[in-house]
Specification:
mainly alpha, 5 helices, 0% strand
Length: 134
């Protein structure tokens, strides 16, 4: 465990949060989501009513999944930044000791978040195919 904490400390010491470009990705995601909303509205305006009624449940399902995915993505990013800030705020010499003590908690939290995201990805990717939508 000490070797893991030491190597983890070295990793976080070199880690560059700017490379992740979380803010840019969040903005792009929000713009894409807004574009989908606009396309959905345009579809409603230009499509005959009987066809709109047929696809409405499908569109609502996809909108719900996109909303849930967006929410979970934001939560995962916030959790990551929270862990990152806690690690960065630890004073230099005590960082390894603190990391050794906190690592199990961080790992549990990360595993839980990762599992939740994976379940949602599976649901979004595979859910439509099982129902015959895609």
């Amino acid at each position: 465990m000490a070797a893991n904490a030491g190597s983890m400390f070295q990793y976080w010491k070199r880690f560059d949060l700017q490379q992740l470009q979380l803010a840019n990705r969040q903005d792009e995601s929000e713009q894409s989501r807004k574009k989908l909303i606009d396309l959905s509205r345009e579809f409603k305006k230009t499509t005959p009513e009987d066809l709109r009624k047929q696809v409405a449940p499908l569109l609502k399902s996809f909108q719900g999944e996109i909303d849930a995915l967006s929410k979970r993505s934001k939560e995962a990013e916030a959790a990551f930044l929270n862990v990152y800030k806690k690690i960065i705020d630890v004073p230099g010499k005590d960082r390894c000791t603190t990391l050794r003590q906190r690592t199990p908690s961080y790992e549990r939290h990360w595993r839980t978040t990762t599992k939740s995201l994976q379940k949602l990805k599976t649901k979004v990717r595979g859910g439509g195919k099982r129902r015959g939508y895609c």
